[in-house]
What does this fold into?
Amino acid sequence: MEQRPFSRSGQQVSVVGLGTWQLGADWGEVVEDDALAVLDAAVDAGVTFLDTADVYGDGRSERLIARYRAQRPDADLLVATKMGRRLPQDPANYTLDHFRAWTDRSRENLGVDTLDLVQLHCPPTAVYTSEAVFDALDTLVAEGRTARYGVSVETCEQALLAIARPGTTSVQIILNPFRLKPLEEVLPAAREAGVGIIARVPLASGLLSGRYTAETVFGADDHRTYNRHGEAFDQGETFSGVDYATGVEAAAEFARLAPSGATSAQTALRWIVQQPGVSSVIPGARSPEQARANAAAAALPPLPAATLDAVTELYDRRIRAQVHERW
It folds into this structure.
């Protein structure tokens, strides 16, 4: 597995990491032994970067990672968590006292004295312009509660505001063949500033796996059922904000771009890995087989220019009008 520098921190991370939202909640139930098997398969395949959050299963995802690390002390992992969604999304709630309480809870869940990386979890835009917020984040580092901090964002505007902050280590943003807007300004700005880019929702909630049809039914406890129109949280988190019917049709076209021997999902991950400035992409996995297949995308040959052009053409024709300006 290729390891890349994680921004100015000097830490190395695997170019394909593992997102662990699905191990906590909102994707249907994953039993504990299966979750641990997913973690084991990912690490054995070379993954060294895990992403979680304090609200994934109300801390379940963090606790599962802690249990796994206790079982595999040989695993050299950078674990990123997120904070800020345990209270209503009011900028007034982003205070040092709350940050201390949230990071203390995550440190306990993860079984560590110092978090590797804590990220603001898609806060309101006003938070990014607050000097007090970033002073508080600097205080967390000074106090040893976290080694570094970053942000997870919904929009390119938010990403650019965060990149301009000197203490920001990383920006986590939706990036996939159905979400190209970050390529225009965000990735170049991050490269210039030495800020790492974590690409999330890389398969557009599974659309880019090519496995779903217009008739696919998701479980009632799956956000792909209950958040298609942003009923529970930002619509961009579900299918990258693309209308499901449109996404299924576009995904069928995308699947035809996969090179011989690669799946549609691996092709999407390989496309992301090739974007200059990406530090790590964090697909989720609900089985060891999925985790291994995702990790194998890092070893694919670079996609040729004709394929990259075809991705852009598909986006412009099918997707751009739905999502580009909104996010």
The chain has a mean pLDDT of 94. The longest strand covers residues 168-174.
